[in-house]
Design brief:
50% of the residues lie in helices and 19% in strands. It has 155 residues and is α+β, with helices and mostly antiparallel strands.
């Protein structure tokens, strides 16, 4: 049986080289012999069940040992689609924030878009799968911009 795990180490960094915690977590997975896909917003690993499960603790430790303050995982049988929360809940939150801020989210200036992201985070919008992409599209910005807005609020 094969598993696939997706993990993200935080905090995110908008541009430039990936943070040390992300590359350390990736290296831990590679050293375990897992198949790895490294991206700007997370890493996917695949392999035999025991190898993946055994490696997850090492990945988490490597991330925290190199500056991560959070590591998030999804693990599933390889080839199975990730479960999706309903987008209707996220759509409702986007509509609510748009009404609160006066209409079209794309037409907002930067400070208002930052406020929109803060309001969406407070209301749990980023608990939905693919929420960063959906919010970015609604605001007319990139995912990286959404993550930068989120990090600015935490920093």
């Amino acid at each position: 049986m094969r598993l696939e795990a997706e993990f993200t180490t935080e905090p995110f960094r908008g541009e430039g080289e990936p943070p040390e915690h992300a590359t350390a977590a990736l290296e831990a997975a590679r050293e375990a012999g897992l198949e790895c896909d490294f991206g700007p917003l997370g890493t996917s690993v695949r392999g035999e069940r025991e190898a993946v499960l055994r490696t997850l603790a090492t990945v988490v430790a490597a991330g925290f040992d190199h500056g991560a303050d959070q590591v998030t995982f999804q693990v599933r049988l390889e080839g199975r689609p990730a479960p999706r929360r309903t987008v209707s809940g996220l759509d409702a939150l986007l509509a609510e924030v748009a009404d609160e801020l006066g209409g079209d989210l794309r037409a907002l200036g930067r400070p208002e878009k930052q406020r929109a992201v803060r309001l969406l985070e407070e209301r749990g919008a980023f608990e939905y799968r693919k929420s960063a992409e959906i919010v970015a599209e609604a605001l007319g910005v990139t995912r990286f911009t959404v993550y930068n807005y989120l990090n600015r609020e935490k920093g």
